[in-house]
Amino acid sequence: MSKDVVNFNAGPAGLPRKALERARDEMMDFEGTGMSVMEHSHRGKHYEKVHREAIALTKSLMGVPDTHDILFVQGGASQLFATVPMNFLQKDGSADYIVTGTWSKKALSEAKLLGKTKVAGKGGEGDTFTRIPRQDELSLDPAANYLHYTTNNTIAGTQYQEIPDAKGVPLVADMSSDIMWKPIDVSKFSLIYAGAQKNIGPSGVVLVIIEKSWMEKGRQDIPVIFRFKTHAEAESLYNTPPTFGIYMMRNVLSVIAEQGGLVGIETKNRKKSALLYAAIDESGGYYRSPVETASRSHMNVVWRLPSEELENKFVKEAEAADMTGLKGHRAVGGVRASIYNAVTVAGVEKLVSFMADFKKRNG
Ligand SMILES: *Cc1c(COP(=O)(O)O)cnc(C)c1O
Questions:
Q1: Residues 6+ positions from 341 with CB-CB distance below 8 Å
Q2: Is position 281 annotated as part of the catalytic site?
Q3: pLDDT reported for residue 125
Q4: What total number of domains does the chain contain?
Q5: What's the pTM value of the predicted model, to 2 decimals?
Q6: What is the 211 CA–ligand 1 centroid distance (Å)?
Q7: 31 falls within a domain
């Protein structure tokens, strides 16, 4: 028996136990073929079935309309920071970016290397990203090639509660840290991308959902491998895809589908974040959230203790009690619990009771 660890890592993050067990059971003999799925040709019928299933599960779980293609690409979400403007920032055009944290800043700086950009909104003062700008605070360019934003800010612990209104401009979203945390209206987006390693799988795969008619407008004067159209036309089999990563994603998505789909997962996710924020808010100021209440993330809950010393002690003692990954990001400090899809309500309950106990002993 391996020990029962609650994994609060920010990414790569925990995976559903059932998805891992399935991989273990199929490891040495995938569907009676006498070898693992990793060793199959990406053009053979055994892998192809997995590939199609991962696409079909994404389509049904998220309700992806026929107007959109589902792609798997590599290079991490960070590569998409570059390939989005490479494809869609036109020579004489400009792109709008809402900057709400470290990741959107990185996305913007890649776009700046390729063309004209404008900051359409900011999530705080200077480099402290403690809130999500309201719709009436945005200054949108009606002629922008697209509007880019980050749905959940993994490091700052903020999250959009609603989809911003792009006023007819193509909307692009980095959903790396909250993809499939709840149902969303995919038709509102021209492009969604998400590294799998937080909510839906292991690292090495990026899920892309792209509006076909918009994809057609992508630039042709860039390398073939970086065009979204290349991957769409080849159904993500233009070159060798990360087959094991896609296989694992398939396993994770089938677990989500079995457990009530995205409606089921949202109920569970809201329960977890409510438990944690209540533990913070009802601690009489011992635990403090630096984030504006209306902008709080349901995926990455960040908080402070009365001193850095106590924060370090908290993280160390939690680790000793088999709760791992609670140290805040090095850029912001404090404590962060990443409570992605695979973290159970029981895992969060364990953390909440540890918080009460720690306060009693160190208050
Ligand atoms: C983790 C993360 C990234 C970076 O993903 P990589 O796959 O490491 O490139 C980008 N955006 C957000 C919102 C993230 O949480």
A1: 16, 180, 181, 199, 200, 256, 265, 269
A2: no
A3: 78
A4: 2
A5: 0.97
A6: 22
A7: yes
